[in-house]
Amino acid sequence: MALAQFDAEWAAPVLWRSEVRNALAGYLRAGRLSNREAETAMELGAACLLGGEHLVSDHAVFDLVSQSRCSAYDCEYVALAQALATILVTEDQALLRAFPKHCRSIAQVI
């Protein structure tokens, strides 16, 4: 994983857990993962983000929502990047277009 080698210190809003659980639920329902495999994936994700989970400011999120057509969920990630004075690495095209000063694609970063 080139991105992890480029930067091993990752951060995410606490919301990441719900979003990843939802994605894993799709794989579970499709029979592509077992319950145990989904749980293991969550454990691995949590281990990668140990100490990197953050709450974000409601004010910051709503400010970003008012500047874009992005969801509040997505704006949480941008708000965290701003709060940590870093960039958000994402493949979400709407975020990349709405917040070019704060977001970069994987290809732009590595």
Round the mean pLDDT to the nearest integer and report it. Answer: 94
Number of domains: 2
Oligomer: single chain
- End-to-end distance, in Å? 11 Å
How many strands?
4
SSE succession: HEHHEHHEHEH
pLDDT under 50 segments (min length 5)?
Answer: none
> Overall 3D geometry?
globular
Q: Strand order, biggest sheet?
A: 1-2
What structural class do you assign from the helix and strand content? Answer: mainly alpha
Strand content: 5-15%
- What share of the residues lie within helices? 55-70%
* Rg calc: 15 Å
Annotation field: number of helices: 7
Q: Main beta sheet, described?
A: 2 strands, parallel
What's this entry about, in short?
By secondary structure, this protein is mainly α. The protein has helices at residues 2-6, 16-29, 35-48, 58-66, 72-83, 93-98, 106-109; strands at 12-13, 53-54, 88-89, 103-104. The longest helix is centred in the N-terminal third of the chain and has 14 residues, at 16-29.
Describe the structure.
The protein has 110 residues and is mainly alpha-helical. It has two domains: 10-54, no CATH class; 56-110, no CATH class. The protein is built from seven helices and four strands, in the order H-E-H-H-E-H-H-E-H-E-H. The strands form two sheets. A two-stranded parallel ribbon has the order 1-2. Helix 6 (93-98) links the parallel strand 3 and strand 4. Helix 2 runs antiparallel to helix 3. The protein is globular and about 40 Å long. The N and C termini lie close together (11 Å). The mean pLDDT is 94.
